[in-house]
Amino acid sequence: MSARSPESPRDAAAGDVLRVVGAARRRLRTVATLRLIAIAAPAGIAAGAALVIAGWAPAETPRALGVLGAIASAAWAAARTPPLAAVARILDTRLGLRDRVAAAMQLQATDGPIAALVARDAAARLASVRMTAVFPLAMGRWPAVAIALAIASMAWLTSSRAGAPAMAPASSASSTSADGASPRSTRDARGAATSAEPRASGRPATPRAAESRTPDDRGNATREAFAPAATPRGPQAAPPSVASQPSTVVNSAGTGRQAAVAPAAAAGSGRTGRGGAGAATAASGGLTAGAGGAAPGNGLASPGSRLEAPAVALSSRAARANAEAALARDVIPPDYRDHVRAYFRALPTPRTGAGETR
Amino acid sequence: MMQTPADIEAQAAIFREVFEHLRDEIGRVFVGQRSLVDHLLLCFFCQGHALIEGAPGLGKTVLVRTLGEALNLSFSRIQCTPDLMPADVTGTNLLAETPQGLREFSFRRGPIFANVVLADEINRATPRTQAAFLEALQERHVTVFGVTHLIEEPFAVFATQNPIEMEGTYPLPEAQLDRFFFKLTVQTPSVADLAEILARTTGTGAVRIAARHGAATVRAMTDVIKQVAVSPPALDRVLRIISATHPGAEEAPPIVRKYVQYGASPRAAQAMILAGKAMALLDGRYHVAAEDVAQVALPALNHRIIRNFHGEMEQVSTGAIVEGIVAATGGNG
Known about the structure:
The complex is a heterodimer of chains A (358) and B (333).
Chain A (H helix, E strand, L loop, with lengths): L8 H46 L6 H19 L4 H12 L4 H7 L6 H14 L4 H4 L6 H23 L4 H8 L10 H9 L1 H6 L5 H5 L3 H16 L16 H4 L2 H17 L4 H21 L15 H19 L5 H13 L12
Chain B lengths: L4 H25 L4 H12 L4 E4 L6 H11 L4 E5 L6 H5 E7 L5 E7 L6 E5 L6 H13 L1 E4 L2 E4 L5 E6 L12 H4 L4 E4 L5 H11 L13 H13 L1 E2 L1 H13 L9 H6 E3 L3 H17 L4 E2 L1 H6 L1 H5 L4 E2 L1 H5 L4 H11 L5
Parallel strand pairs in B: 1-8, 1-9, 2-5, 5-8, 10-12
Antiparallel strand pairs in B: 3-4, 6-7, 11-13
């Protein structure tokens, strides 16, 4: 093979052909990627939506599956991009060039007059070719249907999530607790509320004492006040059944009632010591009942069975009173107060049983 | 001497001009059948031999003779009969007297020593005489009494045979058939063509063929044709077509599996590629496209596919089989 000058017409023509074929290859890859994404991403979103609707996956699943489908499509299209020789054949077929481009590509490494003529011929034919016209980005019927389904499912999910009242107070409270801890689940909050009893029993429950607490203590107090919100999953959540009612409330209703009432009085009088402990205990009892209602698989009645037992009403009232007391004592950080108020406003007012005496 | 692209372009232009000239000159004496004429010229410029099949009186001899005359080439005709001897074709040594009064054997060239040879009704010659053609067809030389005599290029044998009158004939063996580049079939002229034939041949005026160019031009054209490149799709197409002619091949279509006993040889692939190169030059290209080889598949495979018993009994033509093969491997487009 003889040496050629890089600027020879044959090389220029061959370079032009190579450039166009390279551009066609990129365009093919882009089109293939977009077409695959148009199918895979909506399919992933639809599958995710189905999983969410079935209750088998969290709400973020459709978006995650859609992104996953798009990434997989791009990777697949990149891996399946045809080589330059195959792209040359595709160009020949699409443009009716009678194998001009394929021949020019084959003769790239060949010297001689025929190679030059073939390259020149192919370059002349490809000079005015627009890749967007050769490989248009047209969408078929099925991708369009898939995209429409995906949009519909996303819209449905968004609207259903926006309409749900939800666990906003609980989740926001746990995620932005004053002690600066990492976001916690409602189960964490419940555990913290339950464990608040021994700590609270040894500390003064006055506003002044609350102010002097460490940030960690303040976080615990916040969890104490928020724990009820985390347990029943909003106003629609099922109240605990009789079987799950804590023994401190059911078996010693008087004690429980007194304990529940006591903190309010204690908070109002500014007494210290035992009153604070009683408030914490009462709150703990009430919270324990609430936590039992939310815990899955704990033998509670189904959400449909609403039992308005006096003990439950008492527990609920105690929790409400406790929260009001905590609000009055400024134990709850200002950011969460609105959430607490909103939560208790949303809770239905419990009705006491016929045999209840106040 | 290294050729430049301009040289190739000039030669390609001459080839197209010569081809057009021959087509026009042949068209003056041979009416219609453009495809037949084109294939005959392609075969000639590719330095191949053609087997022309047709009923008597369709102008086979006129067609070949006109080709030789238009190119100013030497032309000879061999009328094959059962008593035709090999020496009548190749030539023989004769005892002759020298100027010195001595007697010695000298080789007397037979009619095979011409640029364009018409072997009329070749299937009437005995197998022995037919075999005499074999060496000339393939090797382009003849050997007489142990001495090899080269045949001057260009050299093309156009053999004719009559498909309807088989009594007293010796069908060509497959080995000899394979030597022919193309097998061409002369069709019965249409009514319009027949009227034109009558008008031209029954009057007083005689057509005079304009002889141009010559052997050197034909040789140059042959060299240009061989330089044309073959694109990968064209090569792929040829390989698929040849493979599909074999009934045991994976690519073979049902019609081949059912009616074919033996498929085409590598010579068929060579013929398709060479003829495709000539077609590409005629089209102004310097590479063979897949469509080129598909268009010459029929004349190249027509005589190289051997039908089996079922094919012959059901009178399935090799043309139909070739069409099935071409369609199965991608069509003509």
